[in-house]
Amino acid sequence: MLESDDILDVCGLDCPMPLLKMKQRLNKMSAGGVLTVITTDKASVRDFSVFLRQAGHALLEQREDNAQYQFRIKKGQ
Fold first, then answer.
1. Which active-site residues does the annotation give?
2. b/e per residue, 38-75, with b = 16+ CB within 10 A?
3. Model-level pTM?
4. What's the rounded mean pLDDT across residues 67-72?
5. Other C-beta atoms within 10 Å of 22: how many?
6. DSSP labels for 30-55?
7. Each residue of 28-59: pLDDT tens digit?
8. How many helices and strands, by DSSP H and E, does the chain display?
9. Whole-number Cα distances in Å, 38 to 5, 59, 77
10. Domain 6-74, what architecture?
11. Which letter does DSSP use for residue 8 in this model?
């Protein structure tokens, strides 16, 4: 498992729910916090990338394993 301050498992949820749940969780975290998100939604690869870039968060790591996508995100300022 990826090292992080918090883990959000949104497996089984379809677009746009993984993105919305990730936004909600990031809003509750302090700047510099690291969140790992686990999802089965293929659209998350594109959606997360666009959102994180626009919102000023950093994608530290992205993995795909058995149709499961894991993202490690560092919250920006």
1. 15
2. bbbbeebeebbeebbeeeebeeeebeeeeeebbbbbbb
3. 0.94
4. 96
5. 23
6. PTT-EEEEEE--THHHHHHHHHHHHH
7. 999 999 999 999 999 999 999 999 999 999 99
8. 2, 4
9. 14, 13, 23
10. 2-Layer Sandwich (3.30)
11. E
- Which residue bears the tokens 């996508």? 69
Q: What mean pLDDT value characterizes the chain?
A: 95
Which residues lie below 8 Å from residue 69, measured CB to CB, with a gap of 6+? 38, 39, 40, 41, 42, 44, 45, 62, 63
Residue 50's nearest CA partner among 16, 3, 7 is 16
d(CA 56, CA 60): 13
Domain range summary for the chain, segments of one domain joined by + = 6-74
d(CA 21, CA 17) in angstroms, rounded, equals 6
Length of the chain: 77
pLDDT, residue 10, reads 98
